[in-house]
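Long-time lurker. I teach an intro course on protein structure, and each term I like to show students one example going from raw sequence to a predicted 3D structure in token notation. This year I'd like something fresh instead of my usual example. Would anyone be willing to generate the tokens for the chain below so I can use it in lecture? Attribution to the forum is fine with me.
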Amino acid sequence: MGSARSAGPREYRLYEKGRAWIELNLEHLGHNVRRFQKLLPEGCALMPAVKANAYGHGAAPVAKELQRLGITDYCVASAEEGIQLRLAGISGQILVLGYTHPRDFDALSEYRLTQTVLDAAYAEELRAYGKNLSVHVGIDTGMHRLGEAWDHLSGIRKLWEINNLRITGVYSHLCTSDGEGEEDQAYMRLQETRFQQVVRFLRAEGKRGFSTHLQGSYGILNGTRLLNTYDYARAGIALYGVFSGSSARLERIYGLKPVLSLKARITCIRTLEEGEGAGYGLSWHADARRRIAAAAIGYADGFPRTLSNKGHALVRGRKVPVVGRVCMDQLLLDVTDVPEAVPGEEAVFIGESEGLVLRAEEMAEEAGTISNEILSGLGERLVRVCRGTGPHTD
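-- Reply from a regular --
Happy to contribute to a lecture. Here you go:
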């Protein structure tokens, strides 16, 4: 008589909020989309930037909700990001803003991605591929990063002679639109003037059927200072209800709502006596009897190590400091002023707790960077939990 075959380990779904996680408020995303659409002139459509995993929010859930809200055009940094959107069921135009290696040109075709022509030399690589590709032409109007130089008009015109390239768009990127000073605003207008020179030249040469786009988040928010209307606007960080740096003025004017909250479980709480140290290197010492909590989040999750001994969290609606060095998988909080805190409850690092709010901009300022870097660095092992999807009115 034979022995029974082992069934093997069963599949098990881990609790989404068991350790550290991100919560996405899709009602807030919809609110922000509608706010931006009201800012844009008639005929200009949103082309949301969902690169870098939608600025750390999660490209698939964000793009799916945007698609449900009627958005049909997106931009990403790489072909790989575009492929992931296609695999998640995203249709419509997906523009790759950055470099794609020639060995991956087949993927552009297979997944119906629109590639940026980075400059004339890159156009020759696309020509050598020999197969039809949809492209947008990047124009360098003064950022000096990517794009064919705005004053190289004959070279730009020759791109239309490359038979395997179907040019469906022309765009540039504003590099000082977030600045409030007159010098920054003047340079933004200079870039627009240069871009318009290229567009007028191409149309005078009989080139038709291409869209135009110039503005990112701050170009939209300061759009009243631009003189022309474009077919698309590439909303990025602000679409997620966040600004690159703290801006009470923009928060007040536009009323955008943060989409992302970052949370983790408190795992252990212990009491340290005066003079006792905690964490690697014992870089923090108690100045009196203190109550210390370990939270299950660290720099491998994207919480910056630069916030060792100076970051903050919310516990039961009170702001508490990060103490000691941030570790790979955990960090320490001083919860002395929250005597009712217990293991198993939430610590909020970005978001709201009992009416008190910590914004991503505050974390970025403490870390000496911008919120774009903080959010796009949030790790893959943070589960993205969505709430609030569905039709809503403002």
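Some talking points for your students: The mean pLDDT is 94. The longest strand covers residues 260-272.
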